[in-house]
Amino acid sequence: MVSRLILVLGDQLSDDLSALREASKETDVVVMAEVQAETDYVPHHPRKIAFLFAAMRKFAAHLKTEGWSVRYTCLDDAENTQSIPGELIRAAEATGAEEVIATEPGEFRLISALEECPVPVHLFPDDRFLCSHTEFEGWAEGRKELRMEWFYREMRRKTGLMMEGDKPAGGKWNYDHDNRKRAPKGLAPPGPLRHAPDKMTRDVIELVRARFGNRWGSLDDFWFATTREEAQASLAHFVEHSLPTFGDYQDAMVAGEPFMFHALLSPYINAGLLGWREVCEAAEAAWSKGDVPINAAEGFIRQIIGWREYIRGVYFLEGPDYPTRNELGATRALPDFYWDGDTDMACVSEVVRTTMAEAYAHHIQRLMVTGNFALLAGLDPGQVSEWYLVVYADAYEWVEAPNVVGMSQFADGGVVASKPYVSGGNYINKMSDYCKGCAYSVSTKTGDGACPFNLLYWDFLNRHRARFEGNPRMAQMYRTWDRMDEDRRETVLAEAGALLDRLDAGQRI
Ligand SMILES: Cc1cc2nc3c(=O)[nH]c(=O)nc-3n(C[C@H](O)[C@H](O)[C@H](O)COP(=O)(O)OP(=O)(O)OC[C@H]3O[C@@H](n4cnc5c(N)ncnc54)[C@H](O)[C@@H]3O)c2cc1C
Ligand code: SF4
Hints:
50% of the residues lie in helices and 5% in strands. By secondary structure, it is mainly α. A hairpin with a 2-residue loop joins strand 6 (163-164) and strand 7 (167-168). The longest helix is centred in the middle third of the chain and has 25 residues, at 294-318. The structure holds flavin-adenine dinucleotide and iron/sulfur cluster. Flavin-adenine dinucleotide (FAD) is lined by residues 262-266, 269-270, 300, 303-304, 307-308, 311, 362-363, 366-367, 371, 388, 392, 394-395, 399-400, 403-404, 407-408.
């Protein structure tokens, strides 16, 4: 008689999962299931589905070799109920188990589904993160502002990563200032390690192609790691080939170079194939050996124990309504070019097309191109957030929502960001080579060929003046706007209005 069911979700593919630690190989059965409720709650990029199903099948095989009994449901199994609770009920009926053990899911949606499951589910904390919910709540309590930098310093002290006693290595906590170089011509980033799909992955790709092939996003040339060993090889490849230059060009964008020197590890870390500690320790070790400069190692470690942990803390602290917030009251529908890349704006077109091909774009592309445009144009943050959840292979609500609703769209009213991340075309031009190949002119502020980011930037500031003019970090921008002569301001606003009208009418911009 089976004693308990151990639920392992698609983003819980880790040997040190709390649910597995609580379980017994002798008496318990692991349940894993590919279900339509998960593939369809938003129409995920097929690449993301293929990655997760292939990684799940291989993790299930790995658990079996480790001596676990595993009950695995494939998407096309005839008996599949196509939901997680449904598969738990079916497994309970088949095995006689009366209780489920699970590690807390990363989304309120799934937590509620498990709470309502007729088979009682006992949840254990997801301690694959450095900071627990209680610790984050304790850190946040009584603070007027939840600034990531202060949280990050606590996590550095807690882990001892790149610390010399109680002082940060090199004397500074943060080397971000050195991480803003523009990419010189001819720079040749090595790109991520590409893994040839084996038979199991090829079978999954065919299944996904048959079921979801008409969805948005390409499955061609699939190269993601789908096992822990492959993910570890990807980490080693990153540390050796890209990390030394990661810091310098962290914010740089180059047409035709979607990956630059980024890690391409977020799908693996978020699915559980890699843990925060091993990736940070690999970066720290490379820096200690002198293979990697301090700005690169610190910058990378900050993304993981700083940003990633902070973002998760905010999601669980703020609660289930967080993804639906819309503090700036933005209501414009997401334009079609977010799906087809069919726009004269070279920067947006490049990022959308890369995203469609790879289910990936790097941070600055997400924040300062597609995110910046959405915020400037007043797009509905719910629609924007859903787009990000659909299109990226690393997207799960706990990490996507605070990044999009909070950091990128300021729709949480400033919980994550102390000011909106908005810029005109100048920033994009400074950090990329996109403007060279654009139908618009980045140096033109009004009139024929004026870059839409230039017009919309001032329109945004003007529209939200009451909210932002008192923000000391934005005072300079308002002073610049106020110094423009009145005719010019009127022209900018009239042209921005006409551009938004064209957008609403579905005309090409
Ligand atoms: C609008 C927007 C939406 C985003 N949506 C997601 C998302 O759905 N899922 C996701 O994992 N990240 C998201 N991010 C954060 C970041 O863009 C990605 O983690 C990063 O691009 C992943 O690529 P990489 O592995 O090459 O990262 P690198 O740039 O090489 O960074 C290294 C690692 O740091 C972590 N990291 C860096 N920044 C963040 C961050 N802000 N939040 C969480 N982790 C971070 C990731 O684990 C990443 O693998 C979003 C950022 C923005 C601005
Ligand atoms: S000119 Fe403007 S729209 Fe064109 S690529 Fe540059 S920033 Fe983007």
